[in-house]
Amino acid sequence: MLQRRHQFQVLVTALVFAANCAWPNDLSQPLTDSPGDPDRGLATMRDPAKASCLICHSITALPDRDQGRLGPPLDGVGTAYTADQLRQRIVDARQSSPKTIMPPYFSTEGLYRVGAKWSGTTIYQAQEVEDVVAFLLTLTD
Ligand code: HEC
Q1: Ligand 1 atom closest to Cα of 73?
Q2: Is 90's C-beta closer than 6 angstroms to any atom of ligand 1?
Q3: All domains of the chain in start order, with CATH
Q4: What span, in angstroms and rounded, lies between the C-alpha atoms of 15 and 40?
Q5: Tens digit of pLDDT for each residue in 36-55?
Q6: 90 CA to middle of ligand 1, Å?
Q7: DSSP 116
Q8: 100 CA to centre of ligand 1 in angstroms
Q9: Distances (CA, A) of 111 to 59, 119, 129
Q10: Mean pLDDT by 10 residues, the chain (141 residues)
């Protein structure tokens, strides 16, 4: 009995931990204690191994060739949206736009055909979400 209860507690702790990692409920707070770094954020956004934002979006200020047109240009999102709104969209854009093609960068919920190697992992780490938010906030034109 004691062992059962212990197992149950471990399970609950693991679930609470996973829920916090995979889909943080309070996106009005930064996900990390250390502030986001815009330069690192841009590098993360360009990373082809992490579903580069530039596959789908364009940013006029960047020299990158072949920027995407599937999503709206990101020019001016730093003025149009608050940090919380940008964070929410990166963590899981489906929360505001359920049928979006934009990948959920910090959620493991409701995904299809995830390779075994990536199962249970998020595209970004918490710090990377904050870095990308910091970069987007510099796009004020
Ligand atoms: C597979 C394509 C795709 C990728 C990759 C993608 N997005 Fe998007 N994104 C979209 C689409 C399409 C929209 C338009 C609204 C919707 O579908 O929700 C959008 C909307 C947005 C918006 C709101 C823009 C507005 O003007 O309303 C922001 C901000 C954004 N994306 C940021 C990002 C960032 C940052 C990344 C990389 C971390 C990224 N997106 C990766 C497709 C994508």
Answers
A1: 26
A2: yes
A3: 26-136 (1.10.760.10)
A4: 31
A5: 999 999 999 999 999 999 99
A6: 8
A7: G
A8: 8
A9: 28, 9, 19
A10: 65 55 70 96 97 97 96 98 97 94 94 89 97 98 80
